[in-house]
Please model this.
Amino acid sequence: MFCARPVFQPKWPSITGAPSMLSLAEAQAAILARIQPATRSETLALARAHGRYVATALHARVDNPAFDNSAMDGYALHSRDLAAHDCVLPVQGESSCGSAPQQLAPGTAMRIFTGAPLPAGADTVVMQEDVKRNGERARFPQDTRTGAQVRRRGEDFRAGEALFEPGRRLSAYDLALLSAAGVAEVSVYARPRVLVVATGDELVAPGQPLKPGQIYESNRLATLLQLEALGTEAVDGGTVRDDPAVLRALLKDADDFDFIITSGGASVGDHDLVKQVFAEIGEISFWKAKIKPGKPVAFGQVGARTHFFALPGNPVSSLVTFKLFVEPALYAWHHSQLPVLELPAIAANSFQRKPGRMEFLRARLWSENGELRAEALAGQGSHQIGTLRHTNGFIRIGEDSQGFAAGERVSALPLV
Ligand code: AMP
Ligand code: MG
Model:
């Protein structure tokens, strides 16, 4: 299945029938249409489920709050007693956290603390800062509102209520919420296995001296780390030379992976082997997108299970195509949808360009006087990884745009 063609052809005869350059939206739609979502799930304790994706809807086991309780340190009372006793009541008993209080004796107030159960017979809490205590008696404000400072049972959520649907990616606060709801374990999709391979004769690992023409490899590390952060099982396939036989050999066990992500060799140069090998062993959906940076990018499938992305080698193209294509694909694989945050911003400087491709400019974003500002950074070459030091987002420029002037409204994408 992986070696349909016995002899490697250095040019492009096998994929000339595939569709040509797609717009970003078309390319993303093509990916989403082909993703075969996860089928396996596993049950994990909450502490192990951070960043994982819910497979089975999760429901609250208890009401939250679990019982009526006090929002403040203060005094519990019944509002009708204030009117009857000219706002002065004797203080009797105490309700503290973690135990059940006595019933409130009629015509009295009870000392109470934040989170402690409201005693039966009380309907209101007055915070201690508003109370004048004099020995066993206390004076309360005239304008005390009935029901004040009481957190009602179930006002946040009810036992049985659905908290998270399948596809939800669990954040730390989601997991805290589940803990509060009495849920101890969650069913999440099994992690996809993702193989990451860098290609290039020129690439050397840092720590070794560079020979003439060599550069230090950088894409693989960023890709692996981002994949781990996205809740996948990322497998380091190392760096391979620009030799199709080597790449072919590496990919022969590809059906053990849900995704293969390669870096480099995705253009049409004589040494750009990746798409040719993918064309041999699988089916390419597209191999070019009308975007900048990142035009040479391929997506397709090998065998019944494995999706592949051939990302471009330039470090910034690698980052942008990962964000634009790989991230949404991983969410879709988990029966989910990548949340995209795109905000209007005011351009802090001008940027002129030739229309044709949708462009993602590295940008510095900040807010000023309640508005988002975006500065297109100097050094937009797709090899200029140094610019990323100052980058905390992108400015997105539409295909037909010639750029923008300072002060104009632009679309900003925070880098998260
Ligand atoms: P390619 O996509 O293979 O044509 O590579 C485009 C540019 O990116 C070339 O300048 C490569 O040297 C560089 N490049 C390719 N792969 C990597 C990598 N893994 N890390 C850093 N730079 C790379
Ligand atoms: Mg290369």
Notes: The first strand starts at residue 41 and ends at 45. The two ends are 39 Å apart (CA to CA). Residues 315-333 form the longest helix (19 residues).
